[in-house]
Design brief:
This protein is mainly β and 107 residues long. The chain folds into 2 domains: 1-74, SH3 type barrels (Roll); 75-107. 0% of the residues lie in helices and 45% in strands. It has no helices and 11 strands. The chain has strands spanning 11-14, 23-30, 35-38, 43-48, 58-63, 66-67, 71-74, 81-82, 84-88, 95-99, 105-106. It has a 6-stranded antiparallel beta sheet, with no helix packed on it. It has a 3-stranded antiparallel beta sheet with strand order 9-10-11, with no helix packed on it. It is elongated and about 55 Å long. The two termini are 24 Å apart.
Length: 107
């Protein structure tokens, strides 16, 4: 299993698929299948039976997972899509993520 470069709460842009070009925040990352759920992206209709939470039942719109390879992090400095690198921080010595285009450290 490879190390994923995207994390929860990252702002990403979709590169391929029906939601191409949309931006959103990552809600959940699923490392076992290399997928992520992004807010407002890849919406699907789910048919639900009536239950305690939703007594009426019906059709709900919700986000479906999207492959990590179809997502790219938005650069915190410029707002453009960028690749993600990892390097050691000079002060703390910990590994930090950084945007390859601007060199800016990502939280």
């Amino acid at each position: 299993m490879t190390k994923l470069k995207l994390k929860k709460d990252d702002i990403v842009v979709v590169l391929a698929g029906t939601s191409k070009g949309k931006e959103g925040k990552i809600i959940k990352v699923i490392p076992s299948s290399n997928r992520a759920i992004v807010e407002g992206v890849n919406m699907v209709s789910k048919h639900t039976k009536p239950n305690a939470a939703n007594p009426q039942g019906g059709i709900l719109k919700q986000e479906a997972s999207i492959d990590i390879s179809n997502l790219m992090l938005v650069d915190p400095k410029s707002g453009n899509p960028t690749r993600v690198g990892r390097k050691r921080d000079e002060k703390t010595g910990k590994l930090v993520r950084f945007a390859k285009k601007s060199g800016e450290v990502i939280k």
